[in-house]
Write a structure and sequence with these properties.
single chain, alpha/beta, 138 residues, 4-stranded parallel sheet, 40% helix, Rossmann fold
């Protein structure tokens, strides 16, 4: 009887102008990264509602990655500051439900940082492998 290794499922919400473009650059440059994070493109990280994160975890995601423009570089001026405020509140709420910090992550990645997308996804995948599946705990 063969057993398969745990492969985490990450839901990635990427800003259209920066992080999504960086993930495209990573692909174009043939930078290999784990196929564990299908990307959902949003116009701005500020449009990621905390309910999206909760729904992803509820539906079986092992982790959620939010990617946006660096602070001060948002195409919508203050969208990433809104993201940061929401993210801090969300992390406090999630910790009360026993969700480990490593399961939900916010990263500022500009359009030219394809290598950073590769690094962040690979690192988060490794962290989640060590933690194990989320849905088994809920």
């Amino acid at each position: 009887m063969a057993t398969t290794a745990f492969e985490p499922r990450i839901v990635a919400f990427f800003c259209n102008w920066c992080t999504y473009t960086a993930s495209d650059l990573a692909g174009t440059a043939r930078l290999a990264y784990e196929p564990t994070a299908p990307v959902i493109r949003v116009m701005c990280s500020g449009r990621v509602d905390p309910q999206f994160v909760l729904k992803a975890l509820q539906e079986g995601a092992d982790g959620v990655l939010i990617g946006g423009c660096h602070p001060g570089d948002c195409h919508y001026q203050e969208g990433n500051y809104k993201t940061l405020r929401r993210f801090r509140l969300l992390k406090r709420i999630l910790s009360q439900f026993g969700v480990e910090d490593e399961r939900v992550r916010l990263e500022w990645i500009s359009a030219s940082e394809g290598d950073r997308v590769q690094h962040v996804i690979n690192e988060m995948t490794d962290q989640l492998r060590k933690l194990g599946p989320w849905h088994a705990r809920s």
